[in-house]
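Figure 3 (text version): structure tokens given as input.
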């Protein structure tokens, strides 16, 4: 498992193939060509929000390449990576939970 800032981003087991999807894993896999602007993806093992996805023409060396530019979710640093459109990329599994703050005590604790 790789970590950044103390948060685990990826759980892999010795018997797990790189394209296997695992229940309880913190990443899933998605076709590179289906990841668009605004999507989440793992670029250079960092969870990023994609801000640019440019597809290059098919060249003499085979498949179409996609150039991704993303912003790291934790630091806001720009991250770039190029992938063949036929590959599958890791996508972080994120859930958003909203809470309503009912009150704040004198010693700084929140009531939810």
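Below: residues designed for each position.
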């Amino acid at each position: 498992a790789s970590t950044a800032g103390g948060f685990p981003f990826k759980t892999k087991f010795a018997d797990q193939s790189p394209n296997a999807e695992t229940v309880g894993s913190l990443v899933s896999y998605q076709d590179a060509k289906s990841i668009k602007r605004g999507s989440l993806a793992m670029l250079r093992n960092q969870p990023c929000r994609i801000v640019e996805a440019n597809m290059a023409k098919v060249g003499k060396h085979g498949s179409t390449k996609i150039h991704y530019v993303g912003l790291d979710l934790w630091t806001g640093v720009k991250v770039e990576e190029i992938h063949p459109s036929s590959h599958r990329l890791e996508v972080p599994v994120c859930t958003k939970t909203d809470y309503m703050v009912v009150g704040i005590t004198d010693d700084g604790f929140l009531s939810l």
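The CA atoms of residues 19 and 71 lie 24 Å apart.
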